[in-house]
Amino acid sequence: MSGSRVNALFLGNSSEVNFSLILSPIDEETGKLQHSNCSGSRRAGDWNLSVVPGVNTSKVTVSLSRNLQLCLPNATDCCTTPLCVAETLQVLACHGSVRLAHLLIQAEIYANSSFVGNVSENATIIPNQAFQPLGSCPCDLTAGACDVRCCCDLECTPDLKQLFTGSCFTAVFGGDVNPPFDQLCSAKSMDTPDWFPFLCVQSSLDNTPFLGYFYHGSISTPREPSFKIPLQTSPGRVFAGYRQGDPIMTEENDYFTVPQQSMAGQCVGNAPVAYLQNFDVRCLTHLASYREGLPHDVRINSGTGDFIQQNVIYGTITDIDKFITKSESPPTTEVPCKNVTFAEYYKFICDDKNIKEINVTVFLGSLCDGEILTQRFTVTFVSLYSTNETELSGNPGYQVGKPVRAANLNDSDTFGSLKLWQPAGRGLCTSATYTPVLFGVDSLSGCVLEVGINEDCNFLRGNVTEKLNSLIQATHVGKRGNSNYSDLNDWVQIIRVDPYNSDTNVSTGNLKGICSDIPANLNIRIIIADVGAVQGIPQQEILAVQISYSTVIWQFQCGLTCENLNFLPITASVQFIKVPAQPPIPLTRFQINYTEFDCDRNDVCWPQLFYPLTRFYTGREPYSLCLAKGLALAFLFLLAAIMSNPWFQKVWNNSLV
């Protein structure tokens, strides 16, 4: 453990079980675990043991009750060294004098270096960043406390710096706020080319691009961010319609919002709905923090400048156990119960870039104080010309986030599927549900398979292979999002690489509980490419699909006690590999051998020496002036070459005689 509290679970009925805590149960001379009896108490030294009994599970908590602050001068009841606690504990569960279970804990806890004291309220004067760095130690983020790995932090004592010596932050964040730039003459190193002294910059170290001396940009007035954006409608001009990823707008020029999950895992109530991007989220709330969302009488911009009304159907939740869980916190509101929204299902019916219809199903229920509600919000986009059985994933190319179309062309029922596990509860494969493979989304999922110690290896290999093959119920995958089942050219065959040869008898030896070559990992690689564009939108297509297996060696493992069952985790991964539609032009022998002439790798690009003389140059001077200057410079070079020739000297001398 590394904190001041550790939790564990005791499985079984604990009504007649006595729990005790023992400090330092390891013999210092022999290093072995001492024999402990069941006559201990729930307190040992600075440690306390508490047990919260349940029906078939009890929560066991071991906590530290001492102060973890690092000692200040003339202070007591504190930590004298950074490593404050280094002790070994043992938790016993006994029934009378019979020991049922034990837990060994190795505690190493370092002192808390958080700041304790008064904080000054004086205003900080921020210097002009164009002339000096804002802070000499950017990694110093905590006032009055030592920041780990920040060696320039003045609050870090030498003892604390020894904990992270050799792992300090580098570059600007680590305190080197004014490094010399590469083009400075004084920054010459062993790797600089021979022409560096002719093109380097003679400047003071205070003149640095990190402070903005080289680029004085114009001052722009900051604008307040707003969820309101001007519509693209004007007299005589029609709204251009939605593209995939565009936010859906309302009649008031606001974003149409539905609660969604952020990158941090929290639910955001005013998240805009993106066009053609489905989602299904669940948000936790209780009565005190419940907020109503966007009203359902808001009209939506269809994409052509017209506005459509939502078709709302209200229902009542009958089985509230799927949405409500009891909270252990005390009541926080005066209102005991309230009628709230349990679930909202949005179905957008679309035609290319326009929205034709919006159907909303809202389920209501009663939420009382002390209960936790799991709200569900679902948004689905459906094509106007497709049914539920033939839902398209794009037209013609795939749309990111849509299911990959699959087919079983060797069967009379051509419908197929590519799925991944969506485990729940204990994560067992027998109780796991499925989710489709989404185009352009790399995924990894898995579940746990129960395996006995006397399991036959050949049977285990077949069982695991059967579980993995259940995810691939298809022989072909659609090239495009609108692939037709009756056209074989719209599909690509799945390339399968078998995990092992079933005809070959794999020797398992005489070892019990060990099986080799178990195909525990399913790898799905899908090669995609941009094959064109429709109205400026790139169209993506699937070129090939390969399915392979990765094998592992399974070995039965025991914990504190050995049981007849063990677990084998099996996984399935999906990787989308994007390749160019046409193979790139191979490098010539000159480009491979003479890399100093590569403009992408060097600061000086000799092949572009005459670039200012070409029409591609877009500098401040007009093309005619650049051409005139270039010709004049070429004439001077030519004149110098002629005058330096010996025969020119003879002609010049003869002309003077």
UniProtKB/TrEMBL annotation:
<comment type="subunit">
    <text>Part of the tectonic-like complex (also named B9 complex).</text>
</comment>
<keyword id="KW-0732">Signal</keyword>
<dbReference type="InterPro" id="IPR057724">
    <property type="entry name" value="TCTN1-3_N"/>
</dbReference>
<dbReference type="Pfam" id="PF07773">
    <property type="entry name" value="TCTN_DUF1619"/>
</dbReference>
<feature type="domain" description="Tectonic-1-3">
    <location>
        <begin position="394"/>
        <end position="579"/>
    </location>
</feature>
<feature type="domain" description="Tectonic-1-3 N-terminal">
    <location>
        <begin position="114"/>
        <end position="221"/>
    </location>
</feature>
<dbReference type="GO" id="GO:0036038">
    <property type="term" value="C:MKS complex"/>
</dbReference>
<keyword id="KW-0970">Cilium biogenesis/degradation</keyword>
<keyword id="KW-0325">Glycoprotein</keyword>
<dbReference type="GO" id="GO:1904491">
    <property type="term" value="P:protein localization to ciliary transition zone"/>
</dbReference>
<protein>
    <submittedName>
        <fullName>TECT2 protein</fullName>
    </submittedName>
</protein>
<dbReference type="GO" id="GO:0060271">
    <property type="term" value="P:cilium assembly"/>
</dbReference>
<dbReference type="GO" id="GO:0007224">
    <property type="term" value="P:smoothened signaling pathway"/>
</dbReference>
<comment type="similarity">
    <text>Belongs to the tectonic family.</text>
</comment>
<feature type="domain" description="Tectonic-1-3">
    <location>
        <begin position="240"/>
        <end position="383"/>
    </location>
</feature>
<dbReference type="InterPro" id="IPR040354">
    <property type="entry name" value="TCTN1-3"/>
</dbReference>
<dbReference type="Pfam" id="PF25752">
    <property type="entry name" value="DUF1619_N"/>
</dbReference>
<dbReference type="InterPro" id="IPR011677">
    <property type="entry name" value="TCTN1-3_dom"/>
</dbReference>
